[in-house]
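Inputs:
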Amino acid sequence: MKKHIRLLALVVAVLTFTGCATKQADVDYSAFRQHQPRSILVLPPLNNTSDLRATYSVLSSTTRPLAEAGYYVFPVALVDQTFKENGLQNPGEMHQASPKKLNEIFGTDAALYITIINYGATSALAGGSVVVTAEAVLIDTRTSTKLWEGKASASDAEGKQNQNGLVGLLIQGIINQIANSVSDPGYQIGRMTNQRLLNTGKRGLLPGPRSPRFEQTQSQ
Amino acid sequence: MQITTTLSILSLLMLVGCAAPMQSLYQWGDYENQVYARYNDPGKVPVEAQIAKLEEDYQKARSTNKAVPPGFHAHLGYLYFEVGKDDQAMQSFRTEKNLFPESATYVDRILAKAKK
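Outputs:
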């Protein structure tokens, strides 16, 4: 019993002192702070998988985490349409457009380039789980400076493995919550991937101007 | 025993606190699901029905004093254009710009093109 108390006290102490929003010392946020964007244009992601749904599935769930992080996020479907009207038909071509041009057309401060590495079910030999992995780079459109980069993955196997743990319950809860009319499991897992990739946690984005936490970050 | 319980609750609260640090800034309705369906289930939901759902989301947000997310009104405007409701489309784009001045350059470009 005493051991338990000591362990719990330790957990509480560690949580208290580390806090939740601590930025990793190994990530350099100086360019981010210098070119702090207000708005983010998400380009349709490059799809390095064989599932044709990946690009627009992952694109569709980028708005929420970025907006909740405090940024203006351009309407993703309309932006895609604008690219196409300008003769850029696929993500590969869109990613080649110069950041300056994106600033001119959309008036965006930053552009987010996402590449999808995994989308959908792995082979039965590899466990048959649904995995979505993506990486992202945030670029300042005026100077082409890289502000931030990140990578994240989510899998439906996480929930199954940890069903008894707190994390398992949370993940399973999220999956159940968003299990809606969309039948593609990659959409739901991709949503979790985006929430991990595009949040303001460790190694994540800095809070944007519309976040209540914006001022705190700026005064650090 | 009581100490263990207290500490357990405390650490649980802290973990939960980390997972959900603050209230949502926006009322998230069907907007993102519609973007998914537009590309990956095209034709499943007619544009008129998409509009009706977004209008409903907007009313719901207004009645609870919540903000709709960035891009919402512009997307709705895009749908209005698709069904030929140009006046409502222009109005939606202006609302987007009023709520989110960050969109001004893009919205002005769309409005200028629509007027031609």
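Remarks. Chain A has a mean pLDDT of 85. Chain A touches chain B through 51 residues (CB under 8 Å).
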